[in-house]
Specification:
Blueprint (H helix, E strand, L loop, with lengths): L1 E2 L2 E2 L2 E6 L4 H15 L3 E8 L12 H19 L3 E7 L8 H14 L3 E5 L5 E2 L3 E2 L2 H17 L7 H5 L10 E5 L6 E4 L4 H9 L2 H4 L4 H18 L8 E8 L4
Parallel strand pairs: 3-4, 3-6, 4-5, 6-9
Antiparallel strand pairs: 1-2, 7-8, 9-11, 10-11
Length: 245
């Protein structure tokens, strides 16, 4: 599948919590999965902090959210789901986390990675970005240089586990501000809504479909203003081209 001049066969989406990928990139994911791209989700945390129910436990919520994420992935055509199981809400770009993500990148050898923008601290007046999102985006960027790409970084991944260094061709960060790439998801917006609705413990009675259609319509409007496409619904990214000089 061709994207911005890249022949994509394998794409890896690395994100903090169950539902993050659905909000940020699931229209793109569903579109590419339809076109034959092998998609791997790498879910970093267990999602165990996402409830205000006084009767809920972390252990029970983690199991619920894992099940809901698998259901959402099935809707989108994502067949590979890796759950790293770090504790929700407690992420830092530690060496342990860096090594875990570098391992999955080396194992999966993606042509392109999609992840979260660590520079996005807020969106509009009412949303402060979650620190886990920032930590995951930071670690993914460190994986590009040096964690996954250098043979002498975490050499045991190569020498003991057999995962040779790997550097993807490109990185996409789904972002709140200043995107430079827009993807037409008009044909997969309904799948995006269904995948979000699969996260029942999070969306509840909230009409997530109305919200997401309005948000992705706004993104499409922005693309049109910038002469970067003419479509009804879109997703927005920062693109990093990582080919060697």
């Amino acid at each position: 599948m061709d994207f911005e001049g890249y022949d994509l066969k394998r794409v890896m989406v690395i994100y903090a919590h169950p539902d993050d990928a659905e909000f940020g990139s699931s229209g793109t994911v569903a579109k590419w999965a339809r076109e034959g791209v092998e998609i791997t989700y790498v879910l970093v945390t267990n999602g165990a902090s996402g409830s205000s129910d006084p009767e809920m436990t972390r252990e029970r919520l983690a199991k619920i959210r894992s099940r809901e994420q698998r259901n959402a992935a099935d809707i989108l055509g994502v067949h590979n789901l890796v759950e790293l199981g770090f504790e929700d809400g407690y992420l830092y770009p530690t060496l342990e986390l860096r090594k875990a993500i570098a391992r999955e990148i080396r194992r999966g050898t993606p042509d392109l990675i999609i992840s979260q923008d660590p520079t996005s601290r807020y969106w509009q007046p009412g949303y402060i970005n979650h620190p886990d999102h920032i930590a995951v985006g930071e670690v993914v960027m460190r994986s590009i240089n040096p964690d996954a790409s250098s043979g002498l970084m975490f050499p045991e991944l190569w020498k003991e586990e057999g995962f040779a260094p790997h550097k993807p061709k490109a990185l996409l960060l789904f972002t709140f501000t200043d995107p430079d790439i827009f993807v037409d998801i008009t044909g997969t917006i309904d799948l995006k809504v269904k995948a979000l609705e699969a996260h029942e413990c999070q969306v509840g009675e909230w009409p997530v479909g109305e919200f997401i259609r309005e948000r992705n319509k706004q993104i499409a409007d922005e693309a049109r203003k910038r002469d970067k496409g003419d479509f009804e619904f879109g997703e927005a990214y920062k693109l990093f081209r990582l080919e060697e000089d």
